[in-house]
UniProtKB/TrEMBL annotation:
Cited PANTHER family: CARBOHYDRATE DIACID REGULATOR, DNA-BINDING TRANSCRIPTIONAL ACTIVATOR ADER
Assigned protein family: Belongs to the CdaR family.
Residues covered by the CdaR GGDEF-like domain: 113-231
Gene source species: Streptomyces filamentosus (Streptomyces roseosporus)
Domain of life: Bacteria
Residue stretches making up the PucR C-terminal helix-turn-helix domain: 281-337
Name assigned to this protein: PucR family transcriptional regulator
Pfam family, one: GGDEF_2
């Protein structure tokens, strides 16, 4: 059967049998171009190679051939098929690179809101998202930075797709972190993503933003997830999964930064006069409040004796005038401690 991408082997093989020549540069380049065109048309390479071999059989000279002539003919056929395949593969590589570039551009637009929202929503369908509905974003990090080609993100993706199918899920990497975008009414998808990321990274951490509507909602949910990871760093939160909705109080506390700085300075500033500086006493307050104001638990967490913890709490009371055990003073102290952790005090002076 004749194929649009099969050369005129009849005349070519007759010429080669008579002269023993090889393909010229122009002929090889035309075969490569033909392979590229076939790839762009979506043809299957295996089918096309079969067409070539069928054409060769049909055009093979019927007269008796010497061994040298047979080798010449086979060499030209090999040249032709090799050039065609090289062009086909080159076109495929270019298509893959173009697809990857378009996907990365879309992901940047989706997560950062850099492009026209209508255009972003239109392109989203191609990548499996329907931005007319609400979406939520989870971000996971591990001990190293990841790209989409790394084994860890691929392992997480296989686990997620294996359980949920596509379900209009987008998995990618950004800034060395793994990112999952899923419909807002399917929280089980992001929960499973966080679980798989924790396992694949050997104990990493994930944050999940709130479901938000529309293309701009993906940006907001992504920023919430990133903000939750940033809070985890500043507050020393080590939970494997953080939910942005549970951390909303912290941005509220620092919304008026000047007021928070004044509270930290006026409430905790006297701790600087302690012999060891403010840091040990601030750590004690942090552990005390994190333990639910239980002295024995605080001592265990700090690897101190109960007596040492009690002494430190008394020292804090004397220096600040606020008693950590007194409910009336506790709120002010705890708010100031949270503010200090968020603002980086006492390492950072203000």
């Amino acid at each position: 059967m004749t194929d649009d991408y099969t050369p005129e082997y009849a005349s070519l093989l007759v010429d080669v049998a008579a002269t023993g020549r090889r393909l010229t540069r122009d002929e090889i380049e035309r075969r490569r171009e033909s392979g590229e065109e076939a790839a762009r048309e979506g043809r299957a390479l295996r089918e096309l190679i079969g067409s070539h071999l069928t054409a060769v059989r049909s055009a093979w000279p019927e007269q008796s051939l010497t061994r040298r002539t047979v080798l010449d003919l086979l060499s030209v056929v090999e040249q032709s098929v090799d050039a065609f395949s090289a062009g086909f593969e080159r076109a495929q590589r270019l298509a893959v690179r173009q697809e990857e570039a378009e996907r990365r551009e879309f992901i940047d637009d989706l997560l950062y809101g850099r492009s026209d929202l209508g255009r972003t929503a239109e392109r989203a369908e191609r990548f499996g998202l329907r931005l007319s509905q609400a979406h939520a974003v989870a971000v996971a990090r591990g001990p190293k930075a990841y790209t989409e080609a790394d084994p860890v993100p691929q392992q997480v993706e296989r686990a997620l797709i294996g359980r949920f199918g596509d379900r209009h899920i987008l998995l990618t990497t950004k800034g060395g972190r793994m990112v999952c975008v899923a419909p807002g009414d399917q929280p089980e998808v992001l929960a499973h993503f966080a679980k798989q990321a924790f396992a694949a990274t050997g104990g990493g951490q994930a944050a999940i933003g709130r479901p938000q509507p529309g293309p701009r909602g993906v940006v907001h949910s992504y920023e919430e997830a990133l903000g939750a990871l940033d809070l985890a760093d500043r507050l020393g939160l080590d939970a494997p999964v953080l939910h942005a909705v549970d951390l909303l109080v912290y941005p509220v506390l620092t919304r008026d930064r000047q007021a928070m700085e004044d509270l930290v300075r006026s409430t905790l500033g006297p701790l600087r006069s302690s012999r060891g500086g403010a840091e040990p006493l601030l750590d004690t307050l942090t552990a005390y409040f994190d333990s639910g104001c239980v002295t024995t638990k605080t001592a265990q967490d700090l690897n101190l004796s109960v007596r040492a913890v009690s002494y430190r709490l008394e020292r804090i009371h004397r220096l600040t005038g606020a008693d950590p055990a007194d409910p009336a003073s506790r709120y002010t102290l705890q708010t100031a401690v949270i503010g200090a952790r968020l603002l980086g005090w006492p390492e950072r002076e203000f």
